[in-house]
């Protein structure tokens, strides 16, 4: 809440000393508690959450904390698996090591309140106190006001196509801590292991990464702000349009005498 209030009251502020927060014991502990206990999947090191619990969580957390403190932390390669989709295509899912999932969870706890202060109200995906249900209710709310033209849009392969350099530029608007930025960049560029080969992506954020949805929201917030400026505010005196976005899915609405749905 302190980070959120600071970011809300000082819109031009760039945060410098986030490394200290990232390595705090209570932050790492909270990130550990937030990890999904229902999965026994393992990254390239074959270590599972259950194995960490059996060998000693406190020792594991202290080891990771020491790596962060001494700047020895390095992102491991990501093990990629393909998940079949209903349309017959494949969704690429990255399985990270427990250590990387822990640090990503801690990073999310530190960065999320800062960028939440900037996000537009039309964004509903992967945010605290937001949900698919609230996004649907928002659509129906605008329908009741007479905005009955609907355009349903989807950003094709959004997670796989976000440019690294532009995403880093978005992060630097609020983050000045070079070490924190270097860790995030290492997650974007780390090797992806599939079969017997290792590739290094030139763009995209790893699907399956704990911090990936937040990074997508940070990047797509530009879309929300440009739409607000060029469409909503530019036609403030007219009946207007409204935007409802859930991650890479969006629904612009406009008042008209017809109902149109475009998938």
TrEMBL record:
Record's keyword terms, sorted: Nucleotidyltransferase, RNA-directed DNA polymerase, Transferase
Residue span, Reverse transcriptase domain: 64-263
InterPro entries recorded: DNA/RNA_pol_sf, GrpII_Intron_Splice-Mob/Def, RT_dom
Pfam families the record matches: RVT_1
Lineage per the UniProt record: Archaea, Methanobacteriati, Methanobacteriota, Stenosarchaea group, Methanomicrobia
GO molecular function per UniProt: RNA-directed DNA polymerase activity
Protein name: Retron-type RNA-directed DNA polymerase
E.C. numbers: 2.7.7.49
Domain of life: Archaea
């Amino acid at each position: 809440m302190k980070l959120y209030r600071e970011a809300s009251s000082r819109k031009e502020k760039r945060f410098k000393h986030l490394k200290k927060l990232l390595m705090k014991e209570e932050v790492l502990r909270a990130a550990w508690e937030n990890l999904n206990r229902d999965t026994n999947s393992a990254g390239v090191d074959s270590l599972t959450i259950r194995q960490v619990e059996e060998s000693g969580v406190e020792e594991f957390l202290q080891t990771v904390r020491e790596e962060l403190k001494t700047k020895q932390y390095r992102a491991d390669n990501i093990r990629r698996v393909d998940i079949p989709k209903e349309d017959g295509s494949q969704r690429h899912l990255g399985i990270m090591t427990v250590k990387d999932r822990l640090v990503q969870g801690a990073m999310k706890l530190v960065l999320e309140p800062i960028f939440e202060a900037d996000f537009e109200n039309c964004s509903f995906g992967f945010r605290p106190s937001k949900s698919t249900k609230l996004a649907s209710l928002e659509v129906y709310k605008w329908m009741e006001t007479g905005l009955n033209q609907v355009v349903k849009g989807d950003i094709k392969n959004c997670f796989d196509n976000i440019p690294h350099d532009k995403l880093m530029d978005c992060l630097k608007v609020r983050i000045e801590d070079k070490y924190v930025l270097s860790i995030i960049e290492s997650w974007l560029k780390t090797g992806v292991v599939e079969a017997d080969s290792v590739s290094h992506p030139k763009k995209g954020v790893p699907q399956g990464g704990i911090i990936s949805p937040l990074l997508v929201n940070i990047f797509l917030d530009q879309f929300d702000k440009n739409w607000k400026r060029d469409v909503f505010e530019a036609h403030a005196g007219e009946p207007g349009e409204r935007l409802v976005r859930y991650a890479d899915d969006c629904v612009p609405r406009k008042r008209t005498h017809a109902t149109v749905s475009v998938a």
